[in-house]
Amino acid sequence: MEAKNVSSLLDGIIKKACELEASDIHFEPREEYLRVRYRVDGLLQDEVPIHKSKQAALLSRTKVLVNLDIAESRLPQDGRTNIKIGKASLDLRVSTIPTLHGEKAVIRLLNRSHAHLGLEELGMEKEELALYKKLIAKRNGLILVTGPTGSGKTTTLYATLSVLNSREANITTIEDPVEYQLPGINQVQINPKAGLTFARGLRSILRQDPDIIMVGEIRDLETAKVAVQAAMTGHLVFSTLHTNDAPSAVIRLVDMGIERYLVEDAVVGVVAQRLIRKISPSGYKGRTGLYEIMLGTSPQTGMKTLAQNGSLKIKSRITSREEIARVIYLES
């Protein structure tokens, strides 16, 4: 297949993904064809399959786009670049992995405009938004955002940091990877091969006179210990955990090995969230956030759960009962 033709094919696939507002494109080799799927509003949908004869050229062109080794097809690879589609500025992250019928590639599309959502645009109910603003106004402590992969945790944290960003504050993040570049904020990407882990990076950040720190994810006891220590020594620390609801985040830290009294001293609040599809005149279009906010380390009187806030979204006709059930119960 000619290079010009394969470039046009890939450009067309990426352009259609943008039109659909897809978050990912999947190239999945099958025995007789190359399957193409877009992830739209959290769910995968099939595109017209591509003839097997075009598979190798398309995968090579995808790898060239992000400077991967086209001669290496036996090992997984990762790369990234940025492109412009119309007025949209996109960061592309490409991941490849060898499969039975050839290399599978996933292109993640990150629209930079999504990094600049305001807190009011996230989907919090009025009461939750007021609670969250009160929470992030604290001068120190650990604030956790929880939920499954793809539930919008990073978007919430970026929106939060944008609000807190000022000339008077030194804000530093450590992430895996840095998804969006935030003006005026110091962002560090972990590099385990070079020995730069979350825990080591976080220790170094504490020597950089920070006011606010964002740790992409607490994955292990070492990172949890440093995050708790930072929160208890005058820093406002944000991080994420994979738990189903807000109270479970406290249990997770204790299970990791942090003493309960330290968790209670450090954690000032937990936000659990999901992304739900919004009803449109023909099915669903777009997504918004569903939130559960807990001040401190235990549910307080009047605290609304994900399910209760989901009921409000149903009454407001933002989403359907089926969508709330799918997101809260099937993903839990």
Rounded Rg: 21 Å
Number of helices: 10
Q: In terms of per-residue confidence, which ranges show pLDDT below 50 for 5 or more consecutive residues?
A: none
- Beta fraction: 25-35%
Q: Major sheet: size, sense and barrel closure?
A: 7 strands, antiparallel
Strand segment count: 14
Residues in helices, as a percent range: 25-40%
- H/E element string? HEEEEHEEEHEHEEHEHEHHEEHH
Shape: globular
Termini gap: 45 Å
What's the rounded overall pLDDT mean?
Answer: 94
Structural class of the secondary structure composition? alpha/beta
How would you describe this protein?
With 332 residues, the protein is an alpha/beta fold. Helix content is 33%, strand content 31%. It has ten helices and 14 strands. The strands form two sheets. Strands 1, 2, 3, 4, 5, 6 and 7 form a seven-stranded antiparallel beta sheet that branches. It has a seven-stranded mixed beta sheet with strand order 10-9-11-12-8-13-14, sandwiched between helices. Helix 1 (3-20) crosses helix 2 (55-65) and helix 5 (198-206) packs parallel to helix 6 (221-231). The longest helix is centred in the N-terminal third of the chain and has 18 residues, at 3-20. The radius of gyration is 21 Å and the shape is globular. 34% of the residues are buried. The model has no long low-confidence stretch (mean pLDDT 94).
